[in-house]
């Protein structure tokens, strides 16, 4: 297929499978074609937009036949919002594709044999599973198809909700999101009402002016709720009006915070957060262990499923009590503390200093005395010097970000050769890459995918790597 046929349209193409990153895959005359927004079994026309040597990328111009595996999406914003791309697939199918994604990556990229590939652990809650949602205010709203079809003029109508994919400047006004339990929707809708009643301006993302900017709602399994209102104009009296109303109407709120943010970006990590009501954090609890969740702290967003994930990691680590364990990419030290009772000592390493402060505080709170925590870039902190100070690891638990482990960190593991490595990953492709780099010395004993994010293509995967006998 030459250059001149780049913009060709392929007609009546049957979608065959789900590929990496939740894309759909078809095969036309030996050429693999990737598209978005369709599911296996759909028949569609595809406009090719980019061609490579072995594959092409396109977009669907028309769906001719709907796949029998499709179901009706629950959410009225499905297809516009972009948050839950797989809501039109049954949960069983979603799990099947996630399991396959992990298996394919290990086979194709990792090129490793897995002794036991265990079935994916689905999430008990497929809706209302998130403990954190972040909404944006925008002076200009993204219109739904219904609104466009109505013929009404919606110039500069403010909105509070989610950015639509690929549009940083427009926000979909969301009245109901099924991803978080109530009162998440009620809080957001009340803030919208107060703002409209008082004519408070919404942030203009282009010109970077306007009062109301972001609203973050967080909760924990203990039933504590946090709200963080981010404003771009210093108007404490108006902030007070909004937050007093929330405090009066939502007794669940144990931490009501606000922040003044007039920077070009939305992050609050580098700002002073003000406490309006209650505590400056909410508390999470697992097996009697307490974890402080501050406004800037990372915490796994599906609480009950995080507990399951940690149990699997602990189970794979198979600790007897005399091991030196390293918890790489420890965040606020949750896994480190979760396994500490079963280890001689646990050393946690993490990039974000505030998270390490929280990890230390949490260890104190839980009277755990056999953990130590270090802040810094993994490749600079997980060094021979640290090993000399803290001891050689018998077991390493690693839970890196999507990019996986830095090559230097993998090289360090290949030097240190702990007996077991438990690799927790949110990206099967980078997990498979790193597993391959470790495969001279390690075999993959078990893998168990875990679903933390129903209706998305994201999947977590826990792999147990055991040192090969020849290295002993
Ligand atoms: C997937 S999270 C895991 C958090 C933790 N294990 C948990 O379950 O809460 C990955 C963590 O790696 C940290 N991180 C990212 N890049 C890093 C690096 N180069 N060095 C050290 N930590 C890093 C992030 O800040 C984040 O806390």
Any overview of this molecule?
By secondary structure, the protein is of the alpha/beta class. It folds into 3 domains: 3-65, Nucleic acid-binding proteins (OB fold (Dihydrolipoamide Acetyltransferase, E2P), Beta Barrel); 93-125 and 302-471, Rossmann fold; 132-282, OB fold (Dihydrolipoamide Acetyltransferase, E2P). The chain is built from 11 helices and 24 strands. Strands 7-23-24-22-21-18-19-20 form an 8-stranded mixed β-sheet, with helices on both faces. An 8-stranded mixed β-sheet has the order 9-11-10-8-12-13-14-15. Helix 7 (353-365) links the parallel strand 19 and strand 20 (371-375). Helix 1 runs parallel beside helix 11 (428-437). The longest helix is centred in the first third of the chain and has 20 residues, at 91-110. The radius of gyration is 24 Å and the shape is globular. The model has no long low-confidence stretch (mean pLDDT 93). The structure holds S-adenosylmethionine. Residues 298, 300, 329-331, 334-335, 350-352, 355, 377-378, 399-401, 426 line the site of S-adenosylmethionine (SAM).
Which helices and strands, and how do they pair?
Elements: E1 9-14, E2 17-18, E3 24-28, E4 31-35, E5 43-51, E6 55-65, H1 91-110, E7 114-117, E8 132-138, E9 141-142, H2 145-150, E10 159-163, E11 171-173, H3 184-197, E12 212-219, E13 225-231, H4 236-249, E14 253-260, E15 274-278, E16 282-286, E17 289-293, H5 303-317, E18 324-328, H6 334-340, E19 345-350, H7 353-365, E20 371-375, H8 378-381, H9 384-390, E21 395-398, H10 407-416, E22 420-425, H11 428-437, E23 442-450, E24 460-467
Parallel strand pairs: 4-6, 7-23, 9-11, 13-14, 18-19, 18-21, 19-20, 21-22
Antiparallel strand pairs: 1-5, 2-3, 3-4, 5-6, 8-10, 8-12, 10-11, 12-13, 14-15, 16-17, 22-24, 23-24
Helix pairs in contact: 1-11
